[in-house]
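Project standup — Tuesday

K.O.: blocked on the structure for the chain from last sprint. Re-posting the sequence here as requested.
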Amino acid sequence: MNKPESTAANSLTRRYVRILAFFFFRILQTGWYELVLRRTPLIRSRVQPRDKLYPLLAVQYRDLALQLGGIWIKVGQFLSARQDILPAAVTEKLSGLQDEVCPEPYATVESVIEKEWGIAASKRVASVEAEPLASASLGQVYRAILQGGSEVVLKVQREGIEDIVAVDLRALGVVLHWLGFFRMIRKRVNLDALYQEFSEVISAELDYEQEAVNLERFLDMYAGDPEIHIPQVFPEYSTRRVLVMEDVYAVKVTDMVQIREAGIDPAEVAARIMNAYLRQIFEEDIFHADPHPGNLFVEPIENERWRLVFVDFGMVGRLTEDIRHNLREALLAVVSRDMNRMMAAYQNLGFLLPGADLERIKQAEEELLERIWGKSLREIAEFDLSEAHELAKRYMDLLYELPIQVPVDLILLGRCLGILSGLCSSLDDDFNPFEWLVPYARRWLSDEKEDWFDLLLEQFRIEGRRLLSLPRRLDSVLDNLEAGELVVMARPAPDMARDIEKVAQLGRRILAAVVFCGFLSSAAILYIGGELLLAGALAILAAAALLRVIF
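H.V.: unblocked you, prediction finished:
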């Protein structure tokens, strides 16, 4: 191994060790906090509250991600979408994590281009702007003009990024293995599936040939649409590590000043973004999964006309027909306020953990929907704290059990919707998602009504089957009643079940305290009597009982 290769290998090893050390000590700190400090009655009230500790850990992670680059910024972005397993204070700290890192010099980028093309870059590129348009953890984007005069952007991977990603993924696998020791996380997240999903997303982002295929798919989707612009790709110049496409960079979607100067209403921009994503999510088999402000532009044309421009198709989500069907079912359930339909959609999508109390979740969903229906995101954000506290208190059992999860295959969608929510509300203070969901739902409901006869026939078939089975079921109940074998099962209310568990836990602690006192007094008597060995054994048992009392 020559010196440059040895230096690169040492750098990767140091990176690997630094990552594992960071997570090891943070996991150790969290475990000590949750399993020891918060469970010790004498010091529990004095330890740092969760709403201060976890945001601090999130900030420390964010600093590490910005220093290391690689996959860690994207991991932070993924975590910011996991509001089902992470506190809101943590996801809020991570939500602003942008994939912007220090650019590499163009000379390094040019060497990558020439390796991919097999010829000098100047043979095909007439000029390149010195400063990159964007500098992300995996690659950089430059404005350029080809020898034929075409204005393009060059998207080029960073030198050695594949080795860095391989090391990062290996470290991530180890960290997820450590997290698997925590039952709360293991119960709520399929860590192996999460790792597999994330690895596939990163691998796809490193394959610019796949991104070119994604571009072609979106070009077909919006062919002839005057309101959406997708850049053309130059396949003859594009490779796995270099992507050449039409220069469509325009006004950034969050640049309110330039948007208004062009005579465009930002609220219309929010509406067009929402409509585009509703179509992608509910009607197409693919959606643009990274709608942050650096990937969406507004292109003024003339007479106050404009187009919405999408760039960066490395991260896309794919939805099966079954998932799209159940997402539509969930949307229809929200609009028609049909909680039974919503629970069925949740179950089919895998949102509910096994054993989840459907009736209780249904009650909570109905009450929450009652309070937020028809309100804008700004009004929802200004939800009265006392009212929120009352709602949380009423459904404390659900907050305690957390029976809802985000399936791995919908993480990209959850992250995408989270970014869209913030983006659209920044463009339109009164942005109301219900205004855009209702028309879609009404159209699907009208489609259902067109098949009303088939639906009615199906309902008659179901009810007829129940009616025919009724005599047999009644006969079974009467037989059990005559034989004295009729069993009536009652389930306690969630609050009562939790109170009973607290009483049982208190009883176990009292019993352990009695045992501790017995062992300790016996050990003291034996020690005074000179039976040191037996006294020591009883002292150890007393210590074990004391630990049981504390923890």
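K.O.: great, moving the ticket to review. The radius of gyration is 30 Å. Residues 494-528 form the longest helix (35 residues).
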